[in-house]
Amino acid sequence: MKTTTKPDAKAGAKTGAKTDANADAKMGAKTDVNAIANAAAKTAANAAAKAAAKTDAAADANAKNAGWLAPVAATLDTLATHGTDRYGIVHSPVWMSILDVETLDSPRHPLPLDEAVRVQRRGRRAPGGCNLFLDQAMLCAARRLAALTGDARHDEAARRYAKYYLEHFVDSQTGLLEWGPHNFVNCHEDAVQWLEGHFHEIHAWMPCWPILHECNPRVIEREIAGIWEWHCNHATAQFGRHPEHGAGCSFAMTGGEFAAAFAFMHTITGDDAWRQRALRTARVHWAARNRETNLIPNQAEWEARFDAEHGDTSISGLWCGRLLTAAEMMRNEELLELAVAELRAFLKYQWRGTGRGACARPWGLLKLDGTPVPGPRLPVPPGMDPGQAPYQCWAPCGELDLWPSYMLGYEFPQETALAYADALRLTGDPEMRDGALRWAELYAGDEAALRGRGGTYAQHYGMVISFFCEMARATNDRSHLDTAERYARQAADLLFTGKIFRGHPAKPYYEAADGVGFLCHALAQLHGALHGIPPDSDPMLRNV
């Protein structure tokens, strides 16, 4: 149940100044009045010209300094002004997940549009509501914008949102947050709504635990403790995506998310038990690897499904990426070595035989012996709801899609590129450099073609921009920023309305599920990189 909050009071201050209209200047000495007047006019004209020049220079400087921050600030302004919960009986400072870009209202029943392919299940968009999980990157963007501009308004609005959500939307039985792919807050009905079971689930988009912890330490520490309590088998560290004590799908991306969360708990508590939990969680998948290739399966607990016998880019992007984050936080060599070893395996096998013939790009799916799985992909049966289709339909056979539509699924190419850039920064390893440069060449060569196809989701633009910013940082080669700016210009041209970013060029909506937060975060990162401002030092605030 939500409770009412009083709107922030706004007070205007009016000032007035009295002028002495009767003051005269009297001259008692003999002077050449005309000469004085001419000199005064000349002086005034010079002063006015200098002032105008300074004003123009200041305006130019402000425009240059605003750079890519202007559309970020506009989007956050719109969210804070028009995007809060002003629906139902109880209003609150949480941000609605969908806004009409023309009316800036949140439709109670948004058009289906691409939901069958983007989210598959309608509730994952949080229609008519809010899902804090979908706004993690936007919270980071607000924090970064405040750091770059000195204006805390947007960060304060983001914190009001997060504080309210964390205080009001927690499962009373488990202590776990009402967020993720199954649960959201329906603001028109003033109630938590869930789909296909009341399950807690987090993966694919990393929670910004440091910001959330600042907003409510008690709830966040209970959330992460609840992950260990409800999602994991304490004896074996086997875990599941749902809170079923280790049963169910043990996706690699879920394990990576949990390992990073446990590493965060170690950094704030100093309790070695959390370090051990992070390591044990990572070892679950590593123990299931092929000993000859070091390729791990997507699922570490065997089921009669393709993802228990194959590897895909959710491993190279999300499992490896989160292990790198955890390793950097805890300065842990084992996690770093595991991530780098897996990235080496993908570098060896994912690109095998590519660049010619049937597969011009990296392979999307690998057998654990390193053999790529060719296409075609299995189509969804006619008339079947994609959300009910067999998992085999989502097997990424053949060529990897650089711009996948499905926000979960098994294809995470930009996250993989970011993992190589991060591994290069942390290790300087030549193979990590080779991998990172391959992804850079691939994405640098596709920018014009992407524009010609009409563009893509905000999330993809954001992650690619961040990747090239990270490449500039890791290689000390600023030419990568030129590529980042080309993608930024394309995103601004196709998505920015003047007030807010839409989620996709063909959609009439701002949508959190389309990853607008990733784009805003990336543009703030690009602004900092172009101006020589170091990025946030906290690895948990990376744009992943």
Task: Tell me about this structure.
By secondary structure, this protein is mainly alpha-helical. 47% of the residues lie in helices and 5% in strands. It contains 17 helices and nine strands. Strand 5 and strand 6 (191-194) form a beta hairpin. The longest helix is centred in the first third of the chain and has 34 residues, at 33-66. The chain starts with 32 loop residues before the first helix and ends in a 14-residue tail after the last helix. Mean pLDDT is 89; it is low at 1-65.
Provide the descriptors you would attach to this structure in a database record.
544 residues, mainly alpha, three-stranded antiparallel beta sheet, two-stranded antiparallel ribbon, 17 helices, 9 strands, 5% strand, globular
Furnish the topology, listing elements before pairings.
Blueprint: H1 33-66, H2 69-82, E1 84-85, E2 92-95, E3 98-100, H3 115-118, E4 129-130, H4 136-149, H5 153-168, E5 183-186, E6 191-194, H6 209-215, H7 217-231, H8 252-269, H9 272-286, E7 310-312, H10 313-330, H11 333-349, E8 365-367, H12 413-427, H13 430-444, H14 447-452, H15 458-475, H16 479-495, E9 509-511, H17 516-530
Antiparallel strand pairs: 1-2, 3-9, 4-5, 5-6, 7-8
Helix pairs in contact: 2-4, 2-17, 4-5, 4-17, 6-7, 7-8, 8-9, 8-10, 10-11, 10-12, 11-13, 12-13, 12-15, 13-15, 15-16, 15-17, 16-17
Tally of contiguous helical segments: 17
Q: Give the oligomeric state of the chains in this entry, treating copies of one chain as homo and distinct chains as hetero.
A: single chain
Low-confidence stretches: 1-65
Main sheet, how many strands, which sense, barrel?
Answer: 3 strands, antiparallel
* H/E element sequence: HHEEEHEHHEEHHHHEHHEHHHHHEH
Helix percentage: 40-55%
Let me know the number of strands: 9
Strand content: 5-15%
Envelope shape:
globular
Based on helices, strands and strand pairing, what is the structural class?
mainly alpha
First-residue to last-residue Cα separation: 31 Å
Rg: 27 Å
User: What's the mean pLDDT score?
Assistant: 89
In the sheet with the most strands, the strands line up as 4-5-6
